[in-house]
Task: structure prediction
Amino acid sequence: MITYGAIATVLGDPRKAREVGWAMAICPESVPYQRVINARGQISSGGDVNKRRTALEADGVIFLQDGRVDLEHYLWLPGDESGNGASPSKQA
Result:
């Protein structure tokens, strides 16, 4: 799982997370868009939130009681070879 801000950072402008969200909103169904969440670990409200949550749960993602995803556990950043998530200081 990755955040909109992390994708924007990889693309060269960390201030463009909103634009990444717009692009994800119109991407084809073959793109695993449900794996992109906001920096708070929440599924953004655009689109079918229940469908995205169901898809993430099918991938094995466990949600916290407040509906967020534990980014320390699930966040992946390019170059993170451990595959075990990232520390909050690495979140974008």
